[in-house]
């Protein structure tokens, strides 16, 4: 398990789920199975856990447990996948977003700028879009959007123009070629930070991560029972902002609606006043956890059941 991925904020996240031994739970990001195994340890014989992952490599990590069901699917299909398995409502949902250590360490998947590998970055290896296709076919305007919106790069147009100029000479098919292509606009002092954001932007675009997160958050309102809990671990500001706003207000703008009497109409009651972050001990043990933020909330008894909240559209 630890060789594939070291689970972040393991005890803290499962504790915030307040697992009912007889309850039904969902792990939206199975990965190495660390969080799933911890939830299973808290469940009794009548409990049930459904674990989602779109990367078929993760099947090798599945525990041999009759209470466990692996769902090979993107979590954007949360509600439909559960209904296909006869599940309407659940007691808790946990999501550990981001990329597993396995994806970074397996250089052949193209998630890391260290070393040379095909520009892939697909979490679902059956997906159509690859990072090579993005850098090879997107016009400069679209690359600027990707680098700016998903990587929050300060001068995204410079990176986009570098890519366009480089691909005119030869196709950019590997991670090393991409690093070389953007070298003219890569800050010398912050090279690693710049490349991290560049690769993050491409990964998010390839996998439709922000759209999928919005869809999963909205569907959580429909599948959680009143009193059910949602716990989410995010790793960058884009994810954390969506999660924070949604748990606070039920929409992605973070705008709390009020009724005629001025009472806030929100579907969740926060369990965490502020984000939970890794302890000094965990940071020393697992440096990759340094950017993790955990937020959790409980669904109110009178919460609306979602549907259109936040204005998410399917592609």
| Sheet with the most strands, sense and barrel status | 7 strands, mixed
- Helix tally equals 12
Sheet with the most strands: spatial strand order:
3-2-1-4-5-9-8
Mean pLDDT: 90
Order of helices and strands: HEHEEHEHHHHHHHEHEEEHE
CATH H-level superfamily title of the largest domain: Vaccinia Virus protein VP39
Q: What is the number of independent domains?
A: 2
Inertia-based shape:
globular
> Architecture of the largest domain in CATH?
3-Layer(aba) Sandwich
Share of residues in helices: 25-40%
DSSP strand content: 5-15%
Number of strands: 9
CATH class of the largest domain: Alpha Beta
List keywords for this structure.
315 residues; alpha/beta; Rossmann fold; DNA polymerase, domain 1; 2 domains; 7-stranded mixed sheet; two-stranded antiparallel sheet; 9 strands; globular; disordered C terminus
Q: How would you describe the overall organization of this protein?
A:
With 315 residues, this protein is an alpha/beta fold. It folds into two domains: 10-101 and 209-299, 3-Layer(aba) Sandwich (Rossmann fold), CATH 3.40.50; 108-207, DNA polymerase, domain 1, CATH 1.10.150.170. The protein is built from twelve helices and nine strands. It has helices spanning 10-17, 34-42, 78-84, 101-105, 131-137, 140-149, 156-169, 175-181, 191-207, 209-223, 237-249, 280-285; strands at residues 24-27, 48-52, 68-71, 90-96, 224-234, 257-258, 264-265, 268-270, 293-299. The strands form two sheets. A seven-stranded mixed β-sheet has the order 3-2-1-4-5-9-8, sandwiched between helices. A two-stranded antiparallel ribbon has the order 6-7. Helix 6 packs across helix 7 (156-169), helix 6 (140-149) crosses helix 9 (191-207) and helix 10 (209-223) runs parallel beside helix 11. The two termini are 34 Å apart.
């Amino acid at each position: 398990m630890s060789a594939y991925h070291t689970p972040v904020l393991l005890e803290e996240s499962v504790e915030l789920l307040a697992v009912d031994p007889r309850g039904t739970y969902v792990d939206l990001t199975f990965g190495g199975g660390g969080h799933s195994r911890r939830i299973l340890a808290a469940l009794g014989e009548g409990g049930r856990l459904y674990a989602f992952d779109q990367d078929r490599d993760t099947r090798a990590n599945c525990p041999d447990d009759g209470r466990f069901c692996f769902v090979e699917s993107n979590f954007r299909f949360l509600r439909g996948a559960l209904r296909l398995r006869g599940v309407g409502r659940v007691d808790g949902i946990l999501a550990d977003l981001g990329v597993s250590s396995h994806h970074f360490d397996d250089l052949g998947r193209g998630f890391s700028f260290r070393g040379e590998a095909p520009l892939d970055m697909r979490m679902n290896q059956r997906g159509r879009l690859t990072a090579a296709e993005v850098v090879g076919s997107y016009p400069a305007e679209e690359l600027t959007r990707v680098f700016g919106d998903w990587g929050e790069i300060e001068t995204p147009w410079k990176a986009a123009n570098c890519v366009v100029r480089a691909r005119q000479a030869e196709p950019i098919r590997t991670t090393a070629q991409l690093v070389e292509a953007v070298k003219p606009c890569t800050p010398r002092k912050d090279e690693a930070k710049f490349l991290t954001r560049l690769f993050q932007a491409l990964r998010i675009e390839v996998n439709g991560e922000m759209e999928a997160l919005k869809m999963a958050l909205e569907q959580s309102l429909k599948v959680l029972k009143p009193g059910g809990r949602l716990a989410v671990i995010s790793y960058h500001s884009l994810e954390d902002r969506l999660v924070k706003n949604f748990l606070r207000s039920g929409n992605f703008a973070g705008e709390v609606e009020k009724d005629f009497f001025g009472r806030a109409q929100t579907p969740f009651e926060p369990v965490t006043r502020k984000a939970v972050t890794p302890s000094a001990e965990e940071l020393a043990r697992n440096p990759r956890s340094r950017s993790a933020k955990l937020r959790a909330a409980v669904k109110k008894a009178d919460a609306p059941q979602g549907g259109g909240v936040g204005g998410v559209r399917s592609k």
